[in-house]
Amino acid sequence: MFTSTAYKEKMKEISVLSLICSCLYPETRKNIMGDFEDLDIKPINKRASGQAFEVILKPSSPVSDVAHCVTTPPKRDLSLEDIQKKLEAAEDRRRSQEAQVLRALAEKREHERDVLLKAMEENSNFSRMAEEKLQLKMEQNEENRLAYLAAMMERLQEKERHAQEVRRNKELREEVTA
Question: How far apart are CA 69 and CA 1, in angstroms?
Fold first, then answer.
């Protein structure tokens, strides 16, 4: 199979080779195009902006696999201690993440509780203020009512005094005329 790095290298080789061949051997370019082992290159009709090529990758053969295969570094054998260390580290990460989630939940609950307490306090303050306002208004209404009643009684007494004075004057006139 072809790796991307091998493909990139092959494309660099083709472009350099194509440039050199087109400059030095313009008549033999068609012969050079198909001579790569794992690539089939076909020139497409020439354009005003340059040349175009169709690059076809050939299926890999066992020989080319060996040549282009990238070897992976050998894995070292893990000892029981290494495995235990990794497991402990994973367990520590899990515990840490769990503790972090629990802290976040506790903070969220604390915040909700604070918000609820603040709302209850504001509601209590509002109720107390409304009750005080109502009490003050009722007291003012009672004072106004008593003042109104006192004024009415005063006027009534004033009218009664005036009526007595008018009666007395009438009696005096009758006595004087009699």
Answer: 8
CA 169 to chain centre: 95
Q: Give the integer Cα–Cα distance in Å for 112 and 41.
A: 70
DSSP string for 32-84? HTT--SSEEEEEEEEETTEEEEEEEEPPP-HHHHHHHPPPPPPPPPPPHHHHH
* 104: its two tokens: 């976040």
CB 17 within 8 A of CB 33: no
7: nearest Cα among 44, 45, 41, 49: 41
- Full-prediction pTM beyond 0.85? no
CA triple 128-133-136, angle to 5 deg: 125
Q: What are 61-77's pLDDT values in tens digits? A: 655 555 555 567 777 77
- For 142-177, the DSSP string reads HHHHHHHHHHHHHHHHHHHHHHHHHHHHHHHHHHHH
Tell me which residue has tokens 């939940």.
Answer: 105
Tell me how far apart the alpha carbons of residues 21 and 92 are, in angstroms, rounded to a whole number. Answer: 63
pLDDT of residue 113: 97
